[in-house]
Amino acid sequence: MQPRNMSMRGAVDLAAVKAAAEAAEKAEQARAARARQAQEGGGEAPSAGPLVFDVSEAEFEAEVVPLSAEVPVVLDFWAEGYAPAEELNPVLEKLAAEYDGRFVLARVDIRNSQNLARQLQIRDLPTVLAVVAGQLVPLFEGPAQEAEIRQLLDQLITVAEQRFGIVGEVGARSGSAAGEPAERPEPVDPAMSAAHEALDRGDLGGAIQAYRNVLAERPASVEAKLGLAQAELLQRVQGMDPQAVRSAGAERPDDVDAQLAAADLDLVGGHVEDAFGRLVDLVGRTFGEDRDRVRQHLLGLFEVIGAEDQRVVKARGALARKLF
């Protein structure tokens, strides 16, 4: 059975600029604190904590969110007695030991954390999410093979470093830091790095141009397409009055401009299915140039989320039914 890959591109993060800066600062403060403690104690820095631990909803805000400023935290939602979830636990624990501090694994027993599960919209078990710089990152739902999980973890670690400056310290939790240095992700190329940096500092015009420059040389770059789609979305919602946009969307259901703006606002607010449904319905009520304009805008929103996301797959099917 294939996992329902939710993709890290499923999260649209309007707070990325602020979060990246704050996360980098917190991580540096934590490293400095451990270094000072080691100097004052006259020995090696103490272990930063376990690689695998259990967490309840009461501990989520107090422990997981701050820790995510230092290292990617993978959340494993499971329940004792439910075989598919129990079978995934040892696989994730093995990978946590293998990656040795590049991420940590927090196990959440859904029976003891029902409010948290509702807040995070957990629909199935197992469900695996991640938290990076306080930002929730969907990974996958349902059973998954180790090789597939490994690919998602590698992507998570790379994004955490490139976009937020968060690098889990290898060996810091297992005490093996003095051994052979672990293999690090390949550094991002300068052109892509310039685009990401422009997006992180809020220079949306610069980011858009930088991503377009990358695509001019590498038209198939999925990462650049994603970055461009996100930057263009953020630029469109800049300066919007949310209340006015939502009112216009409700009062003028057939006004293309009003509905496109409302869909953008829906997506930025995390209401992905609402945004898609709004425009799919509008395609069914428009013709000619208006219909094509709505369709193209919807395809652009699909790029923001990622083609493999199940919400995109479902919306593509609905769009096809409206068109044909």
Task: Using the coordinates above, name the CATH class of the largest domain.
Answer: Alpha Beta
Please identify the structural class as seen in this structure. Answer: alpha/beta
Gap between N and C termini, in Å? Answer: 31 Å
Biggest β-sheet strands, sense, barrel: 6 strands, mixed
Written as H for each helix and E for each strand, in order along the chain, the element string is: EHEHEHEHEEHHHHHHHHH
Strand content: 5-15%
How many domains would you count in the coordinates?
A: 2
Percent helix range: 55-70%
Please state the second-level CATH architecture of the largest domain.
3-Layer(aba) Sandwich
**What global shape is seen?**
globular
The CATH homologous superfamily of the largest domain is termed: Glutaredoxin
Rounded to the nearest angstrom, the radius of gyration is 21 Å
Question: Looking across the biggest beta sheet, what order are the strands in?
Answer: 1-6-5-3-4-2
CATH T-level topology of the largest domain: Glutaredoxin
Count of separate DSSP helical elements: 13
Outline the low-pLDDT stretches: 1-25, 42-48, 177-185
The number of strands is 6
Average pLDDT reading: 79
Can you walk through the features of this model?
Pfam families: Thioredoxin, TPR_20. This is Tetratricopeptide repeat protein. The protein has 324 residues and is α/β, with parallel strands linked by helices. The chain folds into two domains: 161 residues, 3-Layer(aba) Sandwich (Glutaredoxin), CATH 3.40.30.10; 85 residues, Serine Threonine Protein Phosphatase 5, Tetratricopeptide repeat. Helices cover 58% and strands 9% of the residues. It contains 13 helices and six strands. Strands 1-6-5-3-4-2 form a six-stranded mixed β-sheet. Strand 5 and strand 6 form a beta hairpin. Helix 10 packs antiparallel against helix 11 and helix 11 runs parallel beside helix 13. The longest helix is centred in the first third of the chain and has 26 residues. The two termini are 31 Å apart.
